UniProtKB/TrEMBL annotation:
UniProt source species: Ranatra chinensis
Domain J, first and last residues per copy: 22-86
Gene Ontology terms: biological process: autophagy
Job of this protein: Plays an important role in regulating the size of autophagosomes during the formation process.
UniProt main location, coarse: endoplasmic reticulum
TM spans (from-to): 524-548
Keyword presence, Endoplasmic reticulum: yes
Protein name: DnaJ homolog subfamily C member 16
Record carries keyword Kinase: no
PANTHER family referenced in this protein's UniProt entry, alphabetically: DNAJ HOMOLOG SUBFAMILY C MEMBER 16
Membrane topology summary: Single-pass type IV membrane protein
Keyword annotations: Autophagy, Endoplasmic reticulum, Glycoprotein, Membrane, Signal, Transmembrane, Transmembrane helix
Amino acid sequence: MKWAAQLFVFSIYAALIRALEDPYKVLGIHKSATVPEIRKAYKQLAKEWHPDKNDDPTAEDKFVEITQAYDLLTDPERRKLYDTLGRVEESRPRRDPQYRRFDPFDEIFAGTGYRFHFTDRDITLFHKLSITSRAFENIIVPKSFRTPHLLLFYSDWCFACLQVEPIWRRIMEELEPIGVGIATVHSEHEKALARKVGIHSLPCLVLLSDGRASVYKESLFSVQKVVEFVRNKMPYKMVATINDDNVDVFLSGWSDNKVRALVFQRTESIRLRYLLTAFYHRDRVAFGFVGPGKSTEGVRSRYQVSPDQDSLLVFNEITERPVASVTMADIPMHTMHDVINNNNFLLLPRLSSQALLDALCPPGGVPQTRKRLCVVLVCQDTPNHDPHRQTLRRFASESHYAKDRVRFVYVYQERQPDFINALTSGKDSPIEPLLHVAILCRRDMSHVKYEWLSGQENWESYNNTKQRLESAIDRVLHTTQSLLNEAVIGELIDEHTQGIVSRIFTKLLLTAEYLNENIGKEHILPIVSILVTVLVIVLAGYFMSYLIKLKNCKKKGSLGSNSGSSGLTGCYTPQLKLHDMRAETYNGLVRLLRPGCRTILLLVDTQSKPHLLPKFHKVVWPYRKNKTLMFATLNLDRGVVWYREVLAQSLAEPRELKINPRNCIGTVLSLNGLRKYFCMYHAKHPECGAGRGSKRIKNMSKQIGIDPAGAFMGFDDTTSESEVSDVEQGSLQTKGDKYGDVIFMENLLDGLPNWLDRLFEGTTHRYYVNYWPDFPAK
C-alpha cells in the first residue's frame, strides 16, 4: 500500500509538471507579455474556469493549471529560469525568506484542510513590519486620514498565520504600490491594541481608514477579496460618475474651492488605485469617473482621450482645456501625485480655512530676497462681485510671478470677519475694506505684515488695475522697503466643516455601520439573553408590587375614608384619609388612641368646608405615611357644643363661654387622647406669630385675666353693645374699625405648615383637660 500511495503522488506531480511545460500556452499569451497582460489573461481564464462557475468536469484541473502558470510567470526569477533552462523549479531550494516556491499540492489540498509544504514558512516578515501601540496612535492613525492602512494581527504560535504568509506577500505586492499602507501587529505583545480594535481570532486583517478600524470578516484570505474589502470601505460617493449630461455641471462647480479631476478608464468599474488617489487628495480635488460607453463618447471626443488607455485630466476654472493631463495603460501612483500636487489649487483660490492659508501663504522666516506674498481681494459671496474676482483671476493667469513667491487669493468678508478686522486696524487702512486689495507677508503663524493698495480700485479698467498691482508687488518684492503695517491674526474659520445636523447624521450612519460589522451571530444570543433577563426582572418587580397592593387591599379594605377612595370597593390606596368626627368615630379618633398617637382635627362648617378642606389636605399630605397620626374634620354645625366644653376645661378659671362658630373656622387641634391635652392653631393665635396684633392680644389677655386659649378667640362675654368682638383680630375694636385687620378665608391656613413643624418639635403650648367630653349624638 505504501508503494501504491507513493506511485499515486508521483503520478499527480508528474502530470502537473507536464501541464506546466508551457505556461504561456496555458494562459494564451506570447513570451514577451508584460505582467499586466499576464494578470489580465489570468483574470479572464480564472473567471471562465472557476469550479464554482463552470460545470465542466475538467474545470477544477484546468483552474489549477491556470493558477500555477500565473504563479510561475509572475515570479521574475522563476520565469527567467523557465525561459532559459526550461525548468519550472530551481534545482535546489532557495534560502531567501521572501521567495515563495511552487508547491503543487498546496493548492490541490487547500480546500480539504490538508496542506503539504515542501518548504518551511516562518513569520520573519511579520516581525519586520510589526508596529507598537504608540506607533499606531501617533503615526498610523494620523496617516489613515489620507492613506488607508492594512494591519495583520498575528502571534508567534499561530499556525494559521503561517498559512496566510504567502497570501500576505501577494497582498503587499498588489496594494502597497498603489497607495495602501501595510503593517503588522503582534497581538500577544500589544494586547490592549488588539482589544481596542476588536480582535477575536488570529490571523485577523484590519483596515484603518479615517481613524476607524474595520475588521475583515471573510473566512478565506485572497488578494481579490482583500481588494474588494478595501474598495468597499472607501467613502460613499467620493468619486462622481460623469457622462455627457453632467460633465459641464461638474467642471463648473469649483465654487467649493476645489480643483476638478477626471479619470478616464477602459473598464466599467473604477480601479482601486484611482479611488486611493481621490481619497488622498479629497480635501483639495474633486474627482469624477468617466467609464466606457455611448453616454461618455462626447466627453472623450471633447478632450481627445484615447479609448485604449487610462487618462487623468486636471481642471481649474478654465473648463475648455485641462491644466494638466497624463495618459498611460497603468498610470503609476507617483505620477498621479506629482500631477495633482503641482495643480491642486485654483487660479484664484479662496481663503476658506487655516490649512489653505498655511498652504497658500506659508509663514515666513525667509530672507528679504525670498519674500512670499499673498495678494488678497476682499469681497462678498454675491454674483455682483464676480466681475472683480474674474479680473483678479485673469491677472493671476497672466502673471509672470512664480507661484512660490506670489499667490493671488480672495476672501469672503462675511465668513472671515476676524481676519478682515485684524487687517483694518493699522495705519492707512480703508474704513470699508470691501473690494479693496491687501498685500500681506506672514512672519510666523500669527503675525503678518500687510499693506493696502491706496485708493479705490477701478475694476472696470483691467489695464489700470493690472498696472497698479504690478507696481505695488514689484516694489515690495524687489526693494528693501518693507510693508507698512503689522497685525496679529487668529485661526481662520473652516468654511467646509459639517453642520450640527450633518454631524449627527454622519454619527448615526457610522454607528449603524459599526453595529452591522461587529454584531454577528455569536453576539445575538447574549444580547437576547440580556434583554430577556431585564424584561423578567421588570415583570417580577411589577408582579411583587401588585401582590403588595393586593395584600394592602385585603388588610385595609374594611376601613372607610372620606377622601382617599380610588373607586375600587374594599381596596386600599396609599392616599391620605380624612375622617369625619361624629358620634360613631369619636372614640376611635380621641378616647381610644394608642400611646404616642394623635389626631389632627380641622374645624369647618358647611359653607367653608369646600374651601378649607383642599388646602388642609395639601398641607398634611407629606405626613400621610406617619402611622402615629390620624386626620379628621369637625363640622361646627353639629360639634360646637363639644368644642365649647373642651375650651372651657382649658381655662384657668371656669366660666361660661359664648362661641360664634364663624369665628372658629380654620382652627386646627392636635388631640392626644391618652394624655388628655390638645395643641391649637389659629391664624390669630399668639403663639403662631402670624397675627398682626399678637402683642395686643397678649396684653389684653393679661388685663382681662383669662388664658390665651380663650382670649384670642374672643370668648369674653363683657363686650358692650358699642363694641364688636373681632375674633380674628383678638382685640376689641370700634364699629368704625371692625374690618381693619380681617383675615380672609383662603388665608386662614397659611401658617399651618410652620405650626406643624413646631408641633412635631414639641415647642407648641399644650392645653390639658380633665376628661374628654361626650360627643353629641345629633
